[in-house]
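Tokens for chain A. Residues wanted.
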């Protein structure tokens, strides 16, 4: 195969690898996609010290190699957090499972729907910030709850509605909470 075909293959396999890792971190895939990672790394290494004469192809290759490097750092960090039990998505999934376990034991009732909605909004907002390469260290569930509680009364008054739902959208490369009035 030629250089253009290898670069196209590298791009496709890198996309697939990113999807597989996301599925792994969400718990859809049970095993880390190490074989596919190895294959993508092998494709990157193939042209690392080779002069690619076409500037466009060299740029594409360099971009893909840099993307792999960034993603590998992210995956390593997330794997470390998972091993330490500090990974947020795992905590979120565990919190969703806890009410079921509590019901089976006959213990506490599940959290109210508003708490689950707040958890969903927080996770969506956090994931949106990560996907936009924005920091999430200072982000907390409480800050999101405060922002919602600040906005909710004004929106309910402005639109004369009984309730407001919130969704996370990305505008101009930044995640935002958007309010949607609910009529009674």
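Reply:
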């Amino acid at each position: 195969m030629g250089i253009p075909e290898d670069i196209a293959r590298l791009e496709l396999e890198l996309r697939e690898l990113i999807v597989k890792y996301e599925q792994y971190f969400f718990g859809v895939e049970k095993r880390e996609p190490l074989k596919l990672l190895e294959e993508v790394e092998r494709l990157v290494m193939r042209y690392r010290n080779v002069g690619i004469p076409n500037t466009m192809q060299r740029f594409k290759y360099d971009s893909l190699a840099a993307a792999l490097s960034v993603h590998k750092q992210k995956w390593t960090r997330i794997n470390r957090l998972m091993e330490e039990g500090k990974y947020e998505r795992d905590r979120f999934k565990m919190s969703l499972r806890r009410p079921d376990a509590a019901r089976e034991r006959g213990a506490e009732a599940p959290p109210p729907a508003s708490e689950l909605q707040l958890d969903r909004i927080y996770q969506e907002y956090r994931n949106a910030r990560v996907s936009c390469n924005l920091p999430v260290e200072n982000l907390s569930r409480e800050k999101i709850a405060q922002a919602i509680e600040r906005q909710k009364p004004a929106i309910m008054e402005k639109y004369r509605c009984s309730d407001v739902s919130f969704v996370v959208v990305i505008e101009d490369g930044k995640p935002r909470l958007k309010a949607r009035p609910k009529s009674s």
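The beta strands are 163-171, 174-182. The chain has a mean pLDDT of 83.
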